[in-house]
Amino acid sequence: AFKRDEVKVIFVLGGPGVGKGTQCANLVRDFNYVHLSAGDLLRAEQARPGSEFGELISTYIREGNIVPQEITIALLRNAMQEAVSQGRTKFLIDGFPRKMDQAVKFEDDVALSEFTLYFDCSEEIMLQRLLKRGETSGRSDDNIESIRKRFKTFIETSMPVVDYYRSLNKVIVVPCDKSQEEVYSLLKDKIRDRMDI
Ligand code: UP5
Ligand code: MG
């Protein structure tokens, strides 16, 4: 595990297509954070020639299920170690933890989170965004069947993680139904005084 104060970790959670990746990119542009999307790391591992997990990951992602935590945590830990070795210590961890066991294991073994950004918007809007993105994304889970499964997994499995951190008073809620620019300006207002170490 990283030592206390060695790294700063912010979790970024919210339903499929809510805009986690989009807003993280804005934060990276304006603040000195490393953006690690658990989904992107899993997709990269899936595509890596010789990966022993490739097939497993692709099945889990298409079905909207949560990949076993050992795999995701190892990918995150490696990426964090790499960044820390280059002197970069502030992290936006996007789309993780999305199951209680991941949250507990990551905070025990890797690093404590400072707080969680929870991006909130209606399923109807998320569905529209994902279907639109699906026209060009090439993502195997941007189709209506997979999207339905992702929504179900999010409500049943991932919302309990948000509720857990909420019970600890560690959640900042950001409504995400407006334009990207409006969402970002709201987000910045809510976190401006918390982005420095
Ligand atoms: N868009 C964004 N903001 C907009 C706005 N305000 N107005 C209009 N349009 C907006 O945005 C989605 C689309 O909407 C884009 O086209 C964007 O331009 C537009 P994006 O920023 O990509 O949203 P994001 O929340 O990042 O959506 P994403 O699809 O990445 O979220 P998921 O949480 O579903 O996907 P993720 O990649 O995190 O996970 C995929 C799968 O990996 C999971 O289902 C799971 O199977 C697996 N996984 C694990 O098993 N374990 C993990 O820990 C993580 C993932
Ligand atoms: Mg994303």
Written overview of the protein:
The protein has 197 residues and is α/β, with parallel strands linked by helices. 55% of the residues lie in helices and 14% in strands. The protein has one domain (4-183): P-loop containing nucleotide triphosphate hydrolases (Rossmann fold), CATH 3.40.50. A five-stranded parallel sheet has the order 2-3-1-4-5, sandwiched between helices. Helix 2 (38-47) crosses helix 4. The protein binds P1-(adenosine-5'-P5-(uridine-5')pentaphosphate and magnesium ion.
Strand tally is 5
Ligands bound, unique: P1-(adenosine-5'-P5-(uridine-5')pentaphosphate, magnesium ion
Mean pLDDT: 97
Number of H/I helices? 8
What portion of the residues fall into strands of 2 or more residues? Answer: 5-15%
- Please name the fourth-level CATH homologous superfamily: P-loop containing nucleotide triphosphate hydrolases
What is the CATH third-level topology name?
Rossmann fold
Biggest sheet details: 5 strands, parallel
Structural class: alpha/beta
CATH class: Alpha Beta
Helix content: 40-55%
Instruction: Indicate the CATH architecture.
Output: 3-Layer(aba) Sandwich
Going across the major beta sheet, what is the strand order?
2-3-1-4-5
